[in-house]
Amino acid sequence: MTELQAEQAAVVPRIESQSQRSRYRDVLIALAAFAVLAILPMLTGSKALLDFVIRCSAFGLFATSLNLLVGFTGMVSFGHGMFFGLGAYGFGLIMQRSGLPVPVAFVATLVITTLIAAVIGAICVRLKEIYFAFVTLAFQMLIHSTILSWVSLTGGDQGLRGGIPRPAFFGVDLSNHVHLYITSCALLVIGLLLMRQIAQSPFGYTLRMIRDNATRASFIGIDVWRAKLTIFVLAALFASTGGIIMALFVSGAYPEFAYWTISGEGIFINMLGGVTTFLGPMVGTVLLLILNDTVTRLTEYYGIVLGIVILFFAIGLRKGLMDFVVEWYARRRDGSGE
Amino acid sequence: MLEIRSLSKSFGGVKATDNVTLDFADGSLTAVIGPNGAGKSTFFNLITGALKPDSGQILLNGVDMAGRSPPDIVRHGIGRAFQVASIFPSLTVQETMLAAVCADQRRASVLHRRFPLAETRDRAEHAMELLGLASKRNRTAATLSHGDQKLLDIALALVLDPKVLLLDEPTAGMGTEERWRMIDKVRELWETQKITVVFIEHDMDIVFKIAPEIVVLCYGRILATGTPDAIRRNEAVIEAYLGTEHHAGAAV
């Protein structure tokens, strides 16, 4: 056996065991994160902190799902927020009008989201770059306009009023604040774990290939349109779940949930946290919500402060926070390795 | 066997491929030459589905490929490498190969398992070894030298186990020494893999040295086909493309 062959023989099993280990490691991290979040209500009586985590769960799922499109596939969607709004309105309407159990309404909302995302995606993913971005934005505005104008169904600009019924299921009572908190955390952790699996699966690498060079991907047998449509729909499902959490949190749904600014915030969160690491959008979510809560308390010129922060990351760091940290750590490690 | 029948493609009033009929026998090695704008790359683009022909047939073992999508054509066994290395810059050499095999095994959409899949490793390893890229497995494609990027591009086509391999100027942008290394590699692949290889090349020294069959295209039409000796002696080819440097007398 040559030296090269011996090296290869050693490398191949290492690859497999590494990929298995990475799956177990992710599950363990998810369980540990959930355990920490779950004991938080026992450690603090701060309702504001629990509210903060619930909002982080909603926007974290939304932003991370957007990164499946932006960071992993190279599809910058300006309209991803429509699925956040669809989730909130879909779930709210089903609960208000049908009286179905929460889990059934949850699944029904995801089914509706799937259907709508498949139709919109089938049109949008054929388009490239800026055309894709603007057509997704156009669909978002179409859905927002529909919500505003279909007053009998959606309540128009007043939103879904009267609260969302939240009957208990399997011992879970979502009208109880701690139960809602734990459920939101569970949805966040499960959602992140599923998205991590997508990112690290063969399909995740197909997406990376499409992002890097879609033409070449098609010349190795990949159906680029189908792969893009699949990730568009999957990302919509996680965004919709974020919307459902938000609807449960505020016990209603409002047109702002489907407005273009939600998509803008998603892009901003990704810029803030970084798109090259899986947890970048989650970090960006926490940063944005902290900024939101503190800056709005301190000044009415909230937009100016956020603009300066964007400029700092875009021009100063030229990348998101997690991208910067990971690169800095890699440089430091390589430096000490030498 | 790859059979091209009356293949035509026009862009506006320009006939880029004009009623081309050609046969490429199984296991043959053929060079496609011609002046700039002769329609060589268009010819490859038509065969691989990057362009749809206006008329004609592209028969691979009797099955018409004309008008099919690139993924469909690849799955039938026609692979290609590009004039400018077409790779995935952020992936390592090994990830590129493993992901390509995944695609070929119709596992590109698998969601429930982790990358890389065990069943893809042997073919990926084999392709990296064949192209001499095994020692660079952990390098990202963007950091490879130009020559290695071209090799990776060819490896991407080869790892799919094609029946026909189309190489669009495999030596483009290389220095003299690197060119010969590349073309030796192409010849070695042809000899060891027993596949049909068709390549576009501008360096006539290379073409006459390694290609048993040559096709000359000019203004989208076939000007001549034949052995290197026959092409060297062909007056029309000398006038349209070769000039006097490579004709039979000069070669002697």
Describe this structure in words.
The complex is a heterodimer of chains A (338) and B (252). Chain A folds into 2 domains: 1-43; 46-257, no CATH class. Chain A contains 13 helices and no strands. Chain A has helices spanning 3-43, 47-73, 81-98, 102-124, 129-149, 151-154, 177-200, 202-218, 224-250, 260-273, 280-298, 302-317, 321-337. In chain A, helix 1 runs antiparallel to helix 7 and helix 2 (47-73) runs parallel beside helix 7 (177-200). Chain A is globular and about 55 Å long. Chain A starts with a helix and ends with a helix. The model of chain A has no long low-confidence stretch (mean pLDDT 90). With 252 residues, chain B is α/β, with parallel strands linked by helices. In chain B, helix 3 (93-104) packs across helix 4. The two termini of chain B are 35 Å apart. Chains A and B meet through helix 1, helix 7, helix 8 and helix 9 of A and helix 2, helix 3 and helix 4 of B.
Helix-strand category of chain B: alpha/beta
Summarize the main sheet of chain A: none
Order of helices and strands of chain B: EEEHEEHEHHHEHEHEEHHH
Mean pLDDT of chain A: 90
Extended strand count of chain B: 10
Fraction of residues of chain B in helices? 25-40%
**How can the largest sheet of chain B be summarized?**
6 strands, mixed
Residue ranges of chain A: pLDDT <50 for 5 or more in a row? Answer: none
Any idea what the shape of chain A is?
Answer: globular
Number of strands of chain A: 0
Strand content of chain B: 15-25%
Number of domains of chain A: 2
SSE string of chain A, helix = H, strand = E? HHHHHHHHHHHHH
Q: Separation of termini of chain A?
A: 31 Å
Strand order of the largest sheet of chain B: 6-7-8-3-9-10
Which percent band covers the strand fraction of chain A?
Answer: under 5%
Low-confidence stretches of chain B: none
Whole-Å distance between the termini of chain B?
Answer: 35 Å
Number of helices of chain A: 13
